[in-house]
Amino acid sequence: MSYKVIIDSCGELTEEMKKSGHFETASLQIDVDGHHIVDDESFDQADFLRRVKASGECPKSSCPSPERYMEEYHCDAEHVYAVTLSAELSGSYNSAVLGKNLYEEEYGEKDIYVFNSRSASVGETLIGLKIAECEEKGMSFQKVIETVESYIEEQHTYFVLETLDTLKKNGRLKGLKAVVATALNVKPVMGSTPEGSIQQLSQARGIKKGLAKMVDEVAANMKNTQEKILAISHCNCEERAKAVRDMLLERASFKDVIILDTAGISSMYAADGGVIVVV
Q: Which Gene3D superfamilies match (predicted)?
């Protein structure tokens, strides 16, 4: 069966995914002080980070419209999947579902399924790769859905950022009773909840200790790592990402390791120096 996987632009695509012909990106958009940025191949991370640093305002994002998803569903592929940023953090999931409804109203039934990643960034990347793996094995549409939903249930997302300001100001940390004072250079180790919201797992003084603490959190929850891909994304700090990779490889072996630089939306939330790990 032919298939297509649409990943909203919070999820980074590897070069292999871009070349495969099976993956498309549904772009979110960002506004910084009135400057409009489409999160696609034209995204310039260095320029974006300069604009954010110079701005007194918090950048804002908007998700793809239902009509945009509907356009992506209108293709020759027999099986179509969308993977979105956690529904707890963005309207992208609801938009993708509405797009499916619009498509079916206009064109009739089609095998379309929307996955709520309950994650972000490389969490979405891994889900896209899992879909492709299942399709290449010749699984039925329903079997792919069941297998990938089970995979999402087992997936864990962790991150350490230089600053939580954008997450705070955009309401992505609602429900957290306290966030440690950045004036003390305390770095919270954050992670995903089973529902796809954000929780604080631990904390440490300084970024190096924060990253080491994150590695401890990852290691404490690792299972069957030889069957899994370790995925790391970073915002303008490749050496930190590699250091995290090396620390984790000292603890376990993995089927593969992916390190990607964050695209637009992930750069907005991770901010300069942020590192995200998904297993």
A: 3.30.1180.10, degv family protein (2.20.28.50), Dihydroxyacetone kinase, domain 1 (3.40.50.10440)
SS3 84: strand
* CB contact at 8 A, 213 and 105: no
Across the chain, mean pLDDT equals: 95
Residues 211-240 have a mean pLDDT of 97
Residue range 125-137, pLDDT digits in tens? 999 999 999 999 9
Express the helix, strand and coil content of the chain in percent, nearest 5 each. 40, 25, 35
Sign of CA dihedral 37, 40, 41, 47: positive
Give the helix/strand (H/E) hosting 136: helix 122-136
Nearest to 124 by CA among 275, 220, 263: 263
Helix, strand, or coil here: 150?
helix
Ordered structural domains, the chain, with CATH: 3-28+63-154 (3.40.50.10440), 157-278 (3.30.1180.10)
- DSSP character at residue 48: H
What pLDDT does 178 receive? 53
Pull the structure tokens for residue 187.
Answer: 């770095």
Tokens representing 199?
């929780």
Residue 40, helix vs strand vs coil? coil
Question: What are 147-191's pLDDT values in tens digits?
Answer: 999 999 999 999 999 988 889 888 888 766 556 555 578 899 999
Stated pTM of the model: 0.95
Distance separating alpha carbons of residues 152 and 32, to the nearest angstrom: 32
Say if residues 25 and 265 touch (Cβ distance below 8 Å): no
What is the C-alpha separation between 242 and 237, in angstroms, rounded? Answer: 9
Query: Comparing 4-18, 70-84, 182-196, which segment has the lowest mean pLDDT?
Result: 182-196
